[in-house]
Write the structure tokens for this entry.
Amino acid sequence: CLATLIIMLVGDTYTLINYVSFINYLCYGVTIIGLIVLRWKKPKILRPIKVNLLIPITYLVFWAFLLIFSLYSEPVVCGIGLIIILTGVPVFFLGIYWRNKPKCVNRIIESLTCWGQKLCFVVYPQCGGAEEE
């Protein structure tokens, strides 16, 4: 969010849409690749919707063409889109991967989560939920 706010202050909305559209298409392709990998590695799990593998493979062919064309035609926009994605890596390591965090870090993360929930009206905040019950 911080990177998006900075980009909006510096650039125009059209550029931001280009960055985000590249990121969206990249995520769509990775999702379809995940679908194919799960169909191959875990063929017996329950799937509410099951399609012929020809459909996601065809989608991936077109997706790869569009992604390669985007990288070729606008490498700077695609590079900045990748940088925007990579800004989430430190957040992942601080919030999820690092298991044995000090209590002060956990309190800060909980406080930021509660503040974000209140700000965005996402869910009812459960600040200090164990203590209130």
About this structure: The chain has one domain: 1-120.
